[in-house]
Amino acid sequence: MKAKILVVDDVDTIARVYTRFLDRQGYEVRIAFNGEEALDIWERFKPDLVISDIKMPKMNGFELANALRKRNPEQKIILMTGYADEAEILEQQKAHGYPFFTKPADLQITLSKIVKDVLEGSYSTE
Predict the structure, then answer these.
(1) What is the pLDDT of residues 11-44, one digit of tens each?
(2) Is 90 buried (19+), middle (13-18) or exposed (0-12) by CB count in 10 A?
(3) What value, to the nearest 5°, has the Cα angle with vertex 66 and ends 84 and 27?
(4) What is the CA radius of gyration of the chain?
(5) 70 burial class (0-12, 13-18, 19+ CB within 10 angstroms)?
(6) Where are the alpha helices (DSSP H) in 7-93?
(7) What domains are there in the chain, each with its CATH number?
(8) What confidence tier does 57 reach under pLDDT thresholds 50, 70, 90?
(9) Between 61-71 and 35-45, two packed helices, what is the crossing angle to 10 degrees?
(10) Is 51:5 a contact under the CB 8 Å cutoff?
């Protein structure tokens, strides 16, 4: 059974590139362009993993992650950012169980590995 992943990013190009890459890796993937849309899709799709940008309109990635964890405390979430100042914040968030990567990410090395590790439960915040 394919793992289901929801990719959330307000930048259409990035969202589609990541979605296409993950689809080719054998995952069942859906896409959302903001946090509110992601919550609606999440309710129907029930993904194993949510990969979300931080800076988005309507609801940022931290707000989305917190809303998802309220609905399902076991929801696996990866946050991503293209901003160096947010990367420092994300480093602190690892202690709260939110792995992250910075964009642009090397799809084959970074994205593929972190997704695999998080889905398998072998991702470590240390």
Answers:
(1) 999 999 999 999 999 999 999 999 999 999 999 9
(2) buried
(3) 80
(4) 13
(5) exposed
(6) 12-24, 35-45, 61-71, 84-93
(7) 4-120 (3.40.50.2300)
(8) confident
(9) 30
(10) yes
